[in-house]
Amino acid sequence: MSENGKKDLKEYREFISGIEIGSLRLVSVNSKFIDEALVPAKGGEIRVKDTSRYEVNEKGFIAIHTYIIETVMEGQDKPYIIFKAVYEVKYLSEKKITKQIWNKFRQHNLPLNTWPYARELFHNTVLRFNHPPIILPAFKT
Q1: Mind listing the pLDDT tens digit for each residue in 83-138?
Q2: CA within 13 Å, CB half, 132
Q3: Residue 134 resides in a domain
Q4: CA dihedral defined by 52, 102, 118, 84, rounded to 10 degrees?
Q5: What's the pLDDT tens digit per position in 18-53?
Q6: Which CATH number covers residue 63?
Q7: Dihedral (C-alpha) 136, 29, 54, 89: value to the nearest 10 degrees?
Q8: In a domain, 81, yes or no
Q9: Is residue 137 a part of any domain in this protein?
Q10: Which ranges constitute the DSSP H helices of the chain?
Q11: Residue-number span of the structural domain to which 50 is assigned
Q12: Contacting residues for 99 by C-beta, under 8 A, at least 6 apart
């Protein structure tokens, strides 16, 4: 690892050691079960997309994390379940977040904090559609 890489990693670790979650809340959720006839007996694809942004505040920063999850039958393009959830996480931070730190944080730490909630909400929503359970994958960095 280069000297700059070591310096960046040290800076990131120091930043992470100085943050705490102040609050985590679901801001919005929207889900559609498009066609019961499309429910596959087996197979299919789960598409997971996420976006995030942050805003600095006086106590740290606020992260807005959006998940869009679609289930698609094998051989089809059109999803039969569309699910969107938006989470807001308020982080208390001793150090100010930089764009460079945010780029690492949003890929590694933010999903570790929000993905379990999104998985649980998706799972329960799918069951309320009277659909067989769909298990979303674990988050991997």
Answers
A1: 999 999 999 998 999 999 999 999 999 999 999 999 999 999 999 988 888 889 88
A2: 6
A3: no
A4: 0
A5: 999 999 999 999 999 987 655 655 667 899 999 999
A6: 3.10.420.10
A7: -80
A8: yes
A9: no
A10: 3-17, 99-128
A11: 3-128
A12: none
**Tokens 């069951």 belong to which residue?**
127
**pTM of model > 0.85:** yes
Closest alpha carbon to 75 in 40, 102, 109, 50: 40
Number of structural domains (the chain) is: 1
- DSSP track, 23-56: EEEEEEEEEEE--GGG--SS--EEEEEEEEEEEE
* Residue pointed to by tokens 């982080």: 91
17 within 8 A of 93, measured Cβ to Cβ: no
User: Counting every residue, how long is the chain?
Assistant: 141
